[in-house]
Amino acid sequence: MATSRSVVARPVSEHESILEMYEKTREKNIPTVFDRYEAQQPQCSFGMNGVCCQLCSHGPCRITRKASVGICGAKADTIVARNLVRLACHGVAAYANHLKTAAKTLRATAEGKTPYKIRDEGKLKWLASALGINTNRPSNEIAIDLSNVLISELERDSEASSKMVEVFAPKSRIEVWKRLGILPGGPLHEIMDAMAKSMTSVDTDPVDLLLTGLRLGISSVYVSQIGLEMTQDILFGTPTPTQAEVDLGIIDTDYVNIVAGTGHKPFVAIAMIEAAKTEEMQKVAREAGAKGIRIYGQGETGQELLQRIPQDEVFAGYLGNWITQEFIVATGAIDLVLMDMNCSIPGMKNVADHFHTRLVSISNLVRMEGVEENLDYTPEKAAEQAKDLMKMAVESFKKRRGESHVPKRITKVTVGFSTEAVLSALGGKLEPLLEAIKKGQIKGIVALVSCTTCKTGHDQATVALAKELIKRNMLLVCGGCGSSALEVGGLTTLEASGMAGEGLQSLCKSLKIPPVLNFGTCTDTGRIAMTVAAVAEALGVDPSQLPAAVTAPEYLEQKAIVDAMFSLAFGLFTHIGPVPPVAGGGKVVKILTTELENITGGKVCVEQDPVKAAQAIQEHIENKRRRLKLSV
Question: How far apart are CA 416 and CA 384, in angstroms?
Fold first, then answer.
């Protein structure tokens, strides 16, 4: 049954193609994420403020004027901090699971058991050497040892500090973390400790719980995120700048259309792209009446593909972030959707039931009610699984019914900015960027690592804030679903430099780069951290002293929470929207927004107006410039 519809005060999305598809779902009386959001209003204020506890059978407890503590005696700050730590644990667990899959895939590839191969031997040897592995031997032997080291780092005891943190983190930060007692071990043990701490009546000190959150963030970024991204670089190539097309207009109804998205792991999708290029699979599609097989990126898996795989006759480009998934299916032109960890929303099944689209889980973590087909990724079976999935798509294509409706909008983008790609654009060294910062040509660097949410209007806050920041001569690097917002919004094009301030515009034109450099997914928080650390080292300062900031104008879920924890531990000004569930804890709010700056150098800003948020970021960056005696 469709939800009731009322007049929406503002457009539900930043993008014309999604607005067009939303009208089509309204006409067909198919409820989508926007309708369900409306039906949930007004939302629970206790949950929004983080002051609801459900950990024991005495509860649920809520902090009110009548009851200032829970039944056990826990205060609001304890409940808020404990909830925050548990959210962060979910985020670390997701990233750790991704690293486990990547490491196992690397090992299987080195043993010759997958359709993949080692594409970046230089990075393999660099990472292996950094971790103390002998690199004077065949690449497959190095890769096997590297896989073993990555798994051991994942499982390192929390009482023994992580080797990857010690190798890759700035020495000045390590000293801060040692002093605070938050130099972490491996993610799995850190999760175990944090979950044990945050259960009923164990750790009830909000300060210690917040420090635990910071510790989780450090372990997540330096072990899981750097580990998984470097491994994927080794297997699939380090991203380099390339041109591609995005938005729903790239869908061609004459093809068997497969969406590789609603997840974060690119392994199955890359195997499918390679298999789809064979005459065997294209012939199967043609015999079914299609012109061939096309694979489209969507969500974070799509961003991984976009950064690494050149667009061609098989890989057709990128469609949109997680909120777009129902509207992509509603075009009626999609034959198969791969569901991976995470972001496969239950509502997609209802939309798929109105069409012929087949949903298949490719992860043992993902199960959806009503979806009986699961083909869980196994590295050693990837080639066979890729063909099986394409045959499923062809069978689905044969069952298409009714007319498809595909919006015509397409945006051309420039993507693929890894740390190495940024250095290449700068002539192989950081000096041009440093000089641009010193002279004030660009005022600072802002990392926009964000999701997207109905609460701020799909991609609206992200695009609005990005436009404000580049207008103020801030160079942006982006990751996560926010990358999609800025791609479809036209900000990752060379032409977008015309929207930037005079100084940034000049730099973009001279280097032939857009004002927003797309690093890819939320997993690339680690890659962004390495770039920021490289700038700090070149300037001879700690990251907390840089004219830099982080913004997540549309954070959604648990991985964003742990990314923010890392940003604060790294010493960076961290803007977050919507307001996270902490407002009910006055002490917690004070620590995050004020006191933490004197401890790690980081602080939280929750300004929700894009113009005012940009102004707050600018003021912070100008203050950092003054302290470094740079022109404001």
Answer: 29
